[in-house]
Design goal:
Blueprint (H helix, E strand, L loop, with lengths): L2 H14 L3 H20 L10 H4 L3 H4 L3 H7 L15
Protein name: DNA helicase
Pfam family, one: DUF7990
InterPro entries: CC_star_Cory, DUF7990
């Protein structure tokens, strides 16, 4: 690692470090909103963009259990998909 890369990493840590938790929380909220948009049709909410989001469902199904437990739901809200119980 060159001195410039170490200096750059140090600067990044200096500016990013104090706000790490805030950035992580904002990313989590964006991910939850995106999950809600993709699964809205399956949750019974009409989604005008469902034609485009249906391709993302296989990717998002892997995260359904993590998402619904974080939202405070004991069971999966999707009727056709049971992830844990």
């Amino acid at each position: 690692m060159t001195w410039f890369e170490r200096f750059s990493a140090g600067l990044k840590e200096f500016y990013y470090g104090p706000y790490r938790q805030t950035f992580a929380r904002a990313k989590q909220e964006e991910d939850d909103l995106f999950m809600m948009l993709v699964l809205s049709e399956a949750l019974g909410v009409p989604n005008p963009a469902s034609y485009y989001t249906i391709e993302l469902l296989p990717v998002m199904y892997d995260r359904v259990h993590e998402w619904h437990t974080r939202m405070g739901l004991d069971r999966s809200p999707l009727d056709q998909f049971s992830c844990c119980c």
